[in-house]
Amino acid sequence: MFADIFGFPPQVLFGQLLLGLINGAFYAVLSLGLAVIFGLLNIVNFAHGALYMLGAFVAYFLLTYGGIGYWGALILAPIIVGAFGALIERFLLRRLSGVDHLYGLLLTFGLALILEGTFVKFFGASGKPYPTPAGLQGGVNLGFMFLPWYRGWVVVASLVVCLATWLLFERTKIGAYLRAGTENPKLLQAFGVNVPFLTTLAYGFGVGLAAFAGVLAAPITQVGPLMGSNLIIIVFAVVVIGGMGSIVGAVVTGLAMGVIEGLTKVFWPEASATVIFFVMAIVLVLRPAGLFGKTA
């Protein structure tokens, strides 16, 4: 009956919903990192896609040259790339403090081009396979669709990380310090808090989230130098829809846009590549600050 009404079996709909939820999980984690960086540092981090790619490559290097598997890479890669991000903030972005925010965008855009160009030169533009961990191979037949274990793990891991990040920034003392540092850094520093260190820590944390998403994506999309550039424009649109700097907006909008994209592929495939930008245009007209953004 479902096929008679819609012209396709229900497995197609549920399959695209699953694919949309997986894409939404990546959008949520990447958007979360962008929201953290913009909300706390007021920096539009255009290098986010390249750092997402770097996380996947670090996982690939750990496996190829260090014999460290997926689970070890899932912990080590975000730490390594997050530390690299902290160095970027400390020695490059901090020098732009107090100038127009456009310079920070241009700097991170230049860093993205350098990273992508370097990896294309040494590894080519084609992707490299990264194996799915043994414990997450295969899947389960739910009757109405087949659910691969790894895809389900990606969704669960993304939701756990998003929730943990929200709790960190909204329910802990360090989160309170970080939020206070964005409002009045001089007053916070007068109370003995090392605000520059907190800023570096926040940027490194946001970059680490991008690397975490890169490791999650490696077994699904393969590891390639351009994997981040193909995704970053969509992620920026998600952040704008949710509200620049809003952690809740990044997570909710990322998941929602993934599902909407999946549904569009079923009912109107030609519009699936542009539906997110169509939604962004509507939201900006009705609510310029985004769905969860703070109005001035």
Structure in words:
With 296 residues, the protein is mainly α. The protein has one domain (2-286): ABC transporter involved in vitamin B12 uptake, BtuC (Orthogonal Bundle). The protein has twelve helices and two strands. It has helices at 2-6, 10-41, 48-66, 70-91, 101-123, 149-171, 173-183, 185-190, 195-221, 232-242, 247-267, 275-286; strands spanning 139-141, 146-148. A two-stranded antiparallel ribbon has the order 1-2. A hairpin with a 4-residue loop joins strand 1 and strand 2 (146-148). The protein is globular and about 60 Å long.
Number of strands: 2
> Roughly what percent helix?
over 70%
Task: Give the second-level CATH assignment, the architecture.
Answer: Orthogonal Bundle
Please state the structural category. Answer: mainly alpha
Major β-sheet profile: 2 strands, antiparallel
Distinct helical segment count: 12
Strand content: under 5%
What is the global morphology?
globular
Strand order in the largest sheet: 1-2
Any idea of the CATH class?
Mainly Alpha
Rounded mean pLDDT is 88
Radius of gyration: 20 Å
Features of the shown structure:
296 residues; mainly alpha; ABC transporter involved in vitamin B12 uptake, BtuC; two-stranded antiparallel sheet; 12 helices; 2 strands; 72% helix; 2% strand; globular
Question: Short description, anyone?
Answer:
Helix content is 72%, strand content 2%. The protein is mostly helical and 296 residues long. It has one domain (2-286): ABC transporter involved in vitamin B12 uptake, BtuC, CATH 1.10.3470.
Task: Present the secondary structure layout.
Elements (H helix, E strand, L loop, with lengths): L1 H5 L3 H32 L6 H19 L3 H22 L9 H23 L15 E3 L4 E3 H23 L1 H11 L1 H6 L4 H27 L10 H11 L4 H21 L7 H12 L10
